Amino acid sequence: MSLTYLLTTEQLLTENDLTWERDSGSIHPVNVVRDLGVMLKRELSIKQHVTKVASSCFYHLQRLKQIRRLVGQEVMVQLVSAFILSRFDYCNAVLAELPCATLDPPQRVQNTAARLVLNLRLRDHVTPALKQLHWLPVAGRIKFKLCLLMHLIHTGRAPQYLVDTVQSVITSSRRHLRSSETTDYVKRTTRMKFGEHGFSHSGPAAWNSLPSHLRTIIDTIVFKSHLKAFLFAESFA
Q1: How do residues 72-112 score in pLDDT, each as one tens digit?
Q2: I need a labelling partner for 57 at 20 to 30 A (CA). Which of 21, 31, 185, 218 fits?
Q3: Is the whole model's pTM more than 0.85, yes or no?
Q4: How are beta strands 3-5 and 20-22 bridged, if at all?
Q5: How many CB atoms lie within 10 A of CB 118?
Q6: Among residues 110, 55, 53, which one has the least CA distance to residue 77?
Q7: b/e string for 133-155 if b means 16 or more Cβ within 10 A?
Q8: Residue 4's beta-bridge partner residues?
Q9: Are strands 3-5 and 25-29 parallel, antiparallel or unpaired?
Q10: For 182-226, how does the pLDDT look when each residue is reduced to its tens digit (9 = 90+)?
């Protein structure tokens, strides 16, 4: 029986023969694995996942374009939200701290979707369209997801496995300083730049950047509303 597995970067750099022989069969390495729908290359790159999702979204946009004249704008917004926006919103927290060039494909998808909904030409500026639809850009949507997860942790409504990944400044402080009144969380230090993509770093980084009045909101619905308004103003300042 042949199995596949994903090696870490260190193993890839130090080993030449990557096939493992076991009693149950041979274990062979693969270039890409899928975990909960997220594709990860063996060098821990997520660029292929971004490209794949963007390609799938463009395919569905072409199909929606065929029925654009048959439905109204309200219906098209719902269709785009269901078939397009939900695809690159799924697990988008893993895209945190990625360079703008890597996030360019999903942003092009969103721009194309906005033009389709509002029946705009390719040459029309897309920023007014995003504002009219009240859609956060891709980078803003990622930050929204990170901050929402941190809010759930901060208010005690998150699963334990998420709670265990971060630590508040209050609990990490050894002395009674002004930090005892802060809502900040500790950003985990990482050896490599890749480590900053992890939630233990990107989550607190996004949360700490919010104004203090946002971080003290307890009601999740109110928090989401105020958070989107803040990120919307930040994205289109």
Answers
A1: 999 999 999 999 999 888 888 888 888 888 889 999 999 99
A2: 31
A3: no
A4: unpaired
A5: 17
A6: 110
A7: bebbbbbbbbbbbbbbbbbbbbe
A8: 28
A9: parallel
A10: 889 998 877 766 667 789 999 999 999 999 999 999 999 999 999
Residue with tokens 């929204």: 144
Are the beta carbons of 165 and 131 closer than 8 angstroms? no
Distance CA 94, CA 26 (A): 31
Chain position carrying tokens 């989107």: 228
Task: Name the E strands within the chain.
Answer: 3-5, 20-22, 25-29, 32-35, 38-41
Structure tokens at 70: 């048959």
- If you count them, how many residues does the chain have? 237
Residue 180 identity = S
> With contact defined as beta carbons under 8 Å apart, do 204 and 185 qualify?
yes
Q: Return the domain boundaries, the chain.
A: 3-30, 46-135, 141-235
What backbone phi and psi angles, to 5 degrees, belong to 21?
Answer: -100, 125
